[in-house]
Write a structure and sequence with these properties.
Chain lengths: 434, 459
């Protein structure tokens, strides 16, 4: 299995990757900038994401919204920001490829002249509402804020979540935009993939035509911060929820590092599907929990392994904490059974196959080629990535669980209904988040 | 010297021809409608079984029954336990979805292509011979009750439930798919067994299979598995089309609040009962909605988000069902701008109908946006199988996909104007706010929507 591609690097440093798939008369344009909230600094958090919004508000030669011409052409258009990268994409009918490239290149090469205070303050309001909608006004929505802050010290770029702090967003200025753009938004810090109904030669020619004359910018300063040592902590957060939820989080390997795949599959064995150990025990048999989830969230600088578990009515969190701790201990001691490992491998293979189904959008082939290019300097890493999972052994998974989870420092968060601190872990101390 | 003319945007070339999926139809001797589509190059297969009659078929005191019954399908069948079923699905790289809408129960399975035989067998087994054991029933019902409890803190769920209740009152479309604590509490496993034997009959059901295999191979595989499914002549009858009963003319309140003290945002729903999927004005409504609130550059989103910054986004939709579904506007806005945001939304709804009708350019934009993007919906076997199942639900012809674009293109400005007049009815509209009563109720009177009623949706 693979995603066939051609890669070239333009004279200005822009990586261009092309993948042909002529099933639909559509082309996916996918552009990554290697910048995310990890490139922010304390006091100016949320900026990378706020900036992403501004990229849709117009550029020097098209000084109005980016959605209108592309939607008129039948295109789908979006973007996203996380800690490590920002991506922008369009899926357009084949005949609109020039339009999409014209626009992507205009905002890469000529954004600043079109930026005004008015656009800036409007999008800041939109982002403040996005934060209210997805975090503040959503049950359990602030758990991630509390966990990030506890797992990483204030100077570490994973200490804050990507959407940022509301006070920082209000303090952001148009002057910040200029510096940010010049540092990170240029060909030398970007990767462009065209996938779909387009011939490779023409795609490369168009990429060079539209992006070739944008000057290469400065090499952005690297962000290299080792995962800091943490002491175990037990936190308490009251929220407007009916049922309490326990979160347990550990530092874990960075993306593609040793033990990353092992822990990813360990998360499956623990909490993916009814046959997983925690679901089976806590939800299916003992009925102590209404749901359980687990994942290895691997990122560029370091990873985060998390188990979350919502208590059934009348169940307190210490009961769940004990069960999760024992399940992890058990997986570290004896590893997965052959059946568990085979099941996790089968699901992994299927996930890789499903990922070949779409050319564009979040997680489509164009997005994957860029991910592998930006993080591994190798767009063809698909095969090797699958191989990482297929080579996981039971003993290897057990060793990874022991190395990273069993007895390792962790942050526990008891998120309880208001006025129900009695349900929390006994040693939990209250945290303030907003 | 740049090689690019940046004085104007490039004009897109003409659309390339696109062949919509060909549907092969067979009706099995047991009355099951089989539709297969050969598609794709990725080794993934999709099967969708659609049974007409969804939550609207539930008796009022038993709301949530259809949904609970569907949820029990994969909790064990033919003597296998829930864990064994789950393991089997995992091993085929499967993804099973059990979904109950107002009008239908839909069982969808995606799987690696090489497991298609086992996948079809599994769908057949869980639908025709689920265990429906007492202990599994008790466990799943308890989980449902706990999910319902959690919904009380979910502004979107509260808003949806309050909106449906005010609009539909005693009509079956008022019934929440997942039921209420009271209705779930009164159900027994016998109710589920009775419902299952009535509901899961081959006659009238539709099975869609899409995979990268020749149609005759797919027909043979599906027939081999589903051909033995026999109708149960003694099964009780079920009222599958209660959704087509006449809905109430007027909402039971015009302006309602579900109190959420201290909320950072107000979750809003505005709308009224509109029409059914059978409406001859379907294509005009698609275009009207696209202009009004159906895409990013719609009037509402450009106003409330891009001009005012009141929200992260706002959208509208005609939720067209077998019976008369609602028109709904939905958004969440900052608490302090609740009233101005509602004012702008109401103005837009009134204006597109009377005062600022859809312009020729807006109509052209909507047409090209929807028509040129249409092939995007035919990329994966899962998308295609689901779309074909929707054709079956709404009695639409196999030529529907091919005819969609020409029919859309044929819609005139007059037709959109008259659709706006007929299907948007601000005077019959209900407005639901889930938000902080203290900070909203003082000023909401200025909207002229009448008295603010405090409601508590059935959960």
């Amino acid at each position: 299995m693979q995603i066939p591609y051609t890669k070239t690097t333009l004279a200005n440093g822009l990586d261009v990757i092309v993948h042909e798939d002529h099933q639909l008369p559509m082309v996916a344009v996918n552009l990554w900038y290697h910048v995310g909230s990890k490139n922010e600094r304390p006091g100016r958090t949320g900026f990378a994401h706020l900036f992403e919004h501004l990229m849709f508000e117009g550029s020097a030669h098209h000084d109005s919204g980016y959605f209108e011409p592309l939607q008129r052409a039948g295109g789908l258009i979006n973007g996203s920001t996380n800690t490590d990268r920002t991506n922008y994409w369009e899926v357009v009918p084949t005949g609109a490829i020039d339009l999409a490239l014209w626009m992507e290149s205009d905002r890469m090469g000529h954004l600043l002249p079109a930026l005004t205070d008015e656009k800036f303050s409007n999008q800041r309001d939109v982002v403040l509402n996005e934060r209210r909608q997805n975090y503040e006004n959503r049950p359990y929505g602030l758990a991630g804020v509390a966990l990030a802050a506890a797992l990483f010290p204030p100077e570490h770029p994973y200490h804050w979540i990507t959407i940022g702090d509301p006070e920082d967003l209000r303090a952001a200025s148009l002057a910040d935009v200029k510096t940010f753009f010049e540092t990170y938004y240029h060909p030398g810090n970007a990767s462009l993939t065209l996938a779909g109904d387009i011939e490779t030669g023409r795609a490369l020619e168009l990429a060079d035509r539209y992006f070739g004359d944008i000057p290469r910018g400065p090499q952005p300063p690297p962000v290299t911060t080792a995962a800091p040592a943490i002491a175990s902590q037990s936190l308490l957060l009251e929220d407007r929820v009916e049922l309490p939820r326990l979160y347990l989080s550990w530092h874990s390997p960075a993306m593609f590092a040793a033990d990353d795949a092992e822990l990813d599959l360990a998360a499956d064995v623990l909490a993916h599907g009814k046959t997983s150990r925690l679901y089976r025990q806590l939800v299916y048999e003992r009925r102590l929990a209404t749901d359980v989830s687990s994942y290895q969230h691997s990122r560029e600088l370091s990873g985060l392994f998390q188990v979350a578990c919502t208590a059934a009515a009348g169940v307190s969190l210490p009961t769940l904490e004990q069960a999760v701790t024992e399940a992890i201990q058990g997986l570290g001691d004896a590893g997965p059974t052959a059946v568990e490992l085979a099941r996790a491998e089968a699901q992994t293979e299927a996930q890789f196959v499903y990922r070949l189904q779409t050319v564009g959008g979040f997680g489509g082939k164009s997005d994957q080629l860029n991910a592998y290019n930006v993080f591994k300097s190798n767009p063809g890493f698909f095969d090797a990535d699958l191989e990482r999972y297929q080579s996981v052994t039971g003993a290897g998974m057990a060793a990874a669980v022991r190395r990273w989870l069993v007895g390792q420092p962790r942050v526990a968060l008891s998120l309880v209904p208001r006025g129900r601190r009695d349900l929390a872990l006994a040693d939990a101390t209250e945290v303030q988040v907003s | 010297m740049s090689r690019v003319d940046r004085s104007k945007l490039p004009v897109p070339g003409p659309p390339r021809p696109f062949a919509f999926p060909r549907i092969t139809r067979v009706t099995l001797a047991n009355g099951l409608n089989l539709r297969v589509i050969s598609h794709g190059s990725v080794p993934v297969a999709a099967a969708v079984l659609l049974l007409p009659g969804g939550s609207s078929a539930d008796a009022p005191s038993q709301s949530g029954l259809a949904s609970l019954a569907a949820d029990l399908l994969d909790e064990g069948s033919r003597g296998q336990s829930a864990l064994e079923i789950s393991d089997r699905i995992a091993r085929m790289g499967g993804d099973l979805d059990l979904e109950v809408s107002h009008d239908a129960t839909v069982v969808s399975l995606a799987m690696l292509d090489r497991f298609i035989d086992d996948g079809l067998s599994l769908v057949h087994e869980i639908c025709t011979s689920p265990n429906l054991a007492e202990s599994d029933f008790a466990r799943i019902r308890q989980l449902r009750l706990e999910r319902l409890r959690q919904l009380r803190d979910h502004p979107g769920a509260l808003a949806d439930r309050a909106f449906a209740q005010l609009l539909y009152q005693s009509h079956p479309y008022a019934q929440p798919n997942h039921g209420t604590g009271a209705s779930l509490g009164s159900l027994t496993v016998e109710d589920v067994r009775r419902y299952h034997s009535a509901m899961f009959q081959p006659a009238g059901a539709t099975l869609v299979v899409a995979a990268n295999q020749p149609p005759d191979v797919l027909v043979a595989k599906a027939s081999a598995v589903f051909g033995s499914w026999q109708s149960d002549g003694a099964a009780p009858a079920i009222a599958r089309d209660r959704g087509q009963l006449d809905p109430p003319r007027e909402p039971s309140a015009r302006l309602a609040i579900v109190p959420r003290p201290g909320a950072a945002q107000s979750e809003l729903r505005l709308g009224h009962v509109a029409t059914s999927r059978r409406t001859p004005d379907y294509h005009a409504l698609v275009l009207l909605n696209t202009v009004l609130g159906g895409q990013f550059v719609s009037r509402l989103n450009m106003n409330l988000r891009e001009d005012k910054g009141y929200t992260y986004g706002v959208r509208t939709g005609f939720d067209l069902r077998r019976g008369d579904g609602p028109f709904v506007l939905q958004t969440s806005v900052g608490t302090e701008v609740t009233v101005p945001a509602l004012g702008e939304a109401l103005d837009e709804l009134r204006a597109i109908r009377n005062g600022r009708p859809v312009t020729a350019d807006e109509l052209a934009l909507a047409k090209s946006s929807v028509a040129l993007g249409y092939p995007r919906g035919f990329e994966t076997v899962q998308q295609i199988a689901r779309s074909v199942a929707q054709l079956a639900l709404h009695d639409l012809p196999d030529s529907y996909f091919e005819e969609f674009i020409p029919r859309l293109e044929a819609v005139t400005l007059d037709e959109v104007a008259s659709a706006a007049h007929r299907y948007l009815q601000p005077d019959r509209m209900v407005t639901v706010i889930v938000g902080d009563p203290e900070r909203v109720s003082q000023t909401v009177g200025m909207l002229g929507l009448g008295e603010l009623q405090t409601v508590s949706p059935p959960i």
